[in-house]
């Protein structure tokens, strides 16, 4: 495939992927509204959060290397036989992971109960064991779609579970059925299995016409090492994503976890935009390094970090100041705990540079530094959660989460700072200003138990203007957001 064709397909895929993401953006909040309406106590939402944790555990522990290995190595191969053999080789690894997973669940059948923090029937345990290989093969198939540059289809399939569960919750709400409250694990587990089967069937139908099968397996040089590091990275991500859930469920109960999940979903809006741009940043910075344009990389880093900091603060401040009405969307139980949302927004904003710093380190092939930062987050968050939960309950868990984010942020900032000796890559002034302004908004909202709408609106505007004038922003920051004409000299814009 010619470079122009590759670029065209990548842009086409990126456009449709972002379009699909935008279309599906409100769906999780519709799903959560159904959950809170069906069960105001929060048990249904909490159970769903734990079923997601079990699914993530299966994919993190038993899918070798995660979804990034095939998209990293398959496009680099030019020989069709090598491509077919790589696909076969990785397919064998996935089968091996499935076998290990089934053996683990056979030897320790109570593991799903430990993850779910809920007693389940023997039939459900058996079903988890049978579903495991289907889930892993489905992940393999969607990873292969990404490798073949079928970005839009892969993006759509990865949201099939969301669609199915939202549809189930919607039907239960409209019909007034109590089935979801009576057996949430069964319904959510069935939705996960159905989504995995649908993904596998559709992906196989598309891929079978594009792939020449090979019995022999083949893994390129460096593939196993990369897969090992990527797998360790996946486990780190699972670790800090599981700590809060497991502690809240074990110490405070599934219902409390449900309210926490509903408010966390709101706060997760803050990092989403930066996460969507992560692979674009990695690809662009890697290309600049490949053509020895480190000065342009440094300029791009400064520009992107300033914009990222501004975007985080622009979302964090209104979420903090309007925390009470936002939380009230999911019922009086969440409204009563809206201060959790304030703390969650602060925690998210602390680590506002994680995507750009992580991708910059990956572009320089400093994967070890990324792993160290995530290990630091896990260690700090685990220790503080264990120390604080008994006295401060969910507030203690969120404080531990925020300090864990801070540990990761400091580790990443230091590692990126050490990359270049001549032009150090440092956080912009707006980073420090935004942290102070977000903390001011949080202190005000926390102490007055939620400001009124006029006061919240006035304070949002005032803090936004302070961020603009004291954070070093200017007209150029608005201009770079506008689309530019494609350069005609073959350079990098």
Question: Would you give an account of this structure?
Answer:
This protein is an all-alpha fold and 493 residues long. Helix content is 79%, strand content 0%. The protein contains 24 helices and no strands. The protein has helices spanning 3-24, 27-38, 43-62, 69-73, 80-107, 111-116, 122-147, 151-157, 160-175, 179-182, 184-207, 223-252, 254-267, 269-276, 278-290, 294-321, 323-328, 332-336, 338-350, 354-363, 367-417, 429-447, 453-470, 475-479. α2 (27-38) packs parallel to α9 (160-175), α3 (43-62) crosses α13 and α7 (122-147) runs antiparallel to α8 (151-157). It is globular. Mean pLDDT is 85; it is low at 481-493.
């Amino acid at each position: 495939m010619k470079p122009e064709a590759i670029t065209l397909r990548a842009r086409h895929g990126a456009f449709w992927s972002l379009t699909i993401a935008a279309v599906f953006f409100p769906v999780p909040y519709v799903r959560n509204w159904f959950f809170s309406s069906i069960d105001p106590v929060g048990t249904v939402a909490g159970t769903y959060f734990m079923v997601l944790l079990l699914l993530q555990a299966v994919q993190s522990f038993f899918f070798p290397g995660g979804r990034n290995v095939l998209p990293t190595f398959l496009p680099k191969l030019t020989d069709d036989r090598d491509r077919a053999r790589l696909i076969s080789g990785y397919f064998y690894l996935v089968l091996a992971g499935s076998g290990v997973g089934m053996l683990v669940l056979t030897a320790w059948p109570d593991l799903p109960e430990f993850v779910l923090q809920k007693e389940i029937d023997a039939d459900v345990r058996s079903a988890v064991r049978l579903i495991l290989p289907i889930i892993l093969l489905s992940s393999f198939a969607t990873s292969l779609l990404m490798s073949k540059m079928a970005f839009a289809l892969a993006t759509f399939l990865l949201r099939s579970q969301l669609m199915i569960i939202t549809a189930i919750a919607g039907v239960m709400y409209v019909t007034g059925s109590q089935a979801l409250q009576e057996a949430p694990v069964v319904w959510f587990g069935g939705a996960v299995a159905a989504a995995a089967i649908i993904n596998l069937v559709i992906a196989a139908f598309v891929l079978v016409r594009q792939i020449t099968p090979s019995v022999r397996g083949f893994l390129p040089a460096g593939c196993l090492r990369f897969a090992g590091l990527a797998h360790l990275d996946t486990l780190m991500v699972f670790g800090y994503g599981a700590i809060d859930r497991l502690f809240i469920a074990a110490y405070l109960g599934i219902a409390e976890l449900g309210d926490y999940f509903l408010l966390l979903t709101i706060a997760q809006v803050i990092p989403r935009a930066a996460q969507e741009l992560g692979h674009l940043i990695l690809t662009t910075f890697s290309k600049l390094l490949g053509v020895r344009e480190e000065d342009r990389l440094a300029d791009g880093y400064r520009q992107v970090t300033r914009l990222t900091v501004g975007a985080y603060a622009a979302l964090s401040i209104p979420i903090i100041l309007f925390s009470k009405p936002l939380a009230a969307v999911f019922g009086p139980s969440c409204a009563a705990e809206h201060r959790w949302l304030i703390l969650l927004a602060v925690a998210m904003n602390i680590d506002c540079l994680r995507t750009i710093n992580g991708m910059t380190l990956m572009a320089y092939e400093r994967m070890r530094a990324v792993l160290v930062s995530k290990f630091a987050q896990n260690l700090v968050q685990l220790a503080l959660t264990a120390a604080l939960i008994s006295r401060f309950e969910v507030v203690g868990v969120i404080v531990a989460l925020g300090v864990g984010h801070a540990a990761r942020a400091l580790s990443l900032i230091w590692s990126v700072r050490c990359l270049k000796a001549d032009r150090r890559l440092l956080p912009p002034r707006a980073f420090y200003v935004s942290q102070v302004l977000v903390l001011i908004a949080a202190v005000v909202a926390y102490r007055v138990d939620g400001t009124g709408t006029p006061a919240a609106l006035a304070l949002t505007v005032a803090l936004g203007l302070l961020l603009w004038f004291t954070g070093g922003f200017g007209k150029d920051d608005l201009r770079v957001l506008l689309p530019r004409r494609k350069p005609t000299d073959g350079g990098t814009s």
